[in-house]
Amino acid sequence: MTEQNPRLVRVYDELNSGTWDTDFYAAQLSAEPLRVADIGCGTGAFAVRLARLGHQVVGVDPSSAMLDFARRREGAELVHWLDGTAESLPSGPFDAALMMGHAFQCLLSDEAILATLRAVRSRLAPGGRFMFESRNPVAKAWLGWNTPENQPSRTETASEGPLEESYRVLSAKNELVDFECWNKFLSDDEEITERATLRFAPASTLDTLLAAAGFGAIRWFGDWNGADFDPRSSAEIIVIAAS
């Protein structure tokens, strides 16, 4: 994984403050204190939110820039932070594990998905749950990602001032979407281009891999309002899998 630029991390934290997904996941957890693993915790906003509710939270992420930001945010002392992946988590056991922000789509092969699922499953207490989401490939979300040529969007940020950015999909085949994001900080004209690949695995593949990893009862949702998942039309594949 390419390491994120610290300036982009600050902007990411500021511009990705919506709570539609975190509210959904928080509602799945009981009010009593739980042991929770936040996998791909990013800048740590949700991990700190859960810790403030009384849960014992471990936040793990492979990006040192993301973790540096997380460790400096207010309330960071309530969370145990780790540099790494699901395989880096302590043995637990955890009552719940989460992988949100579509971080699950960074797992690009069946082998990578299965390794993560097995690592999580082995660290869950009996009856513990793993919650994550992935975009439904049928919805083809990437078709709306391209920015019109020579028309970058402009955003005013509190952390970095005015920012221009544009997205370009480079390829979309075999469930993998390769794209790049161009950013220009107008305060000093620094330009940063980042490239990434995401996998759009169908629910049928996820179901097979979850079973292979030893997960039992699985609940499927199609949006953040809790609608049932419809493989033909849902934009999201939201999974709550019990150990």
TrEMBL record:
A UniProt-annotated Pfam family: Methyltransf_25
GO molecular function: methyltransferase activity
GO biological process: methylation
Signal peptide residue numbers: none
Keyword Disulfide bond: no
Superkingdom of the organism of origin: Bacteria
Protein name: Ubiquinone/menaquinone biosynthesis C-methylase UbiE
Native species: Psychromicrobium silvestre
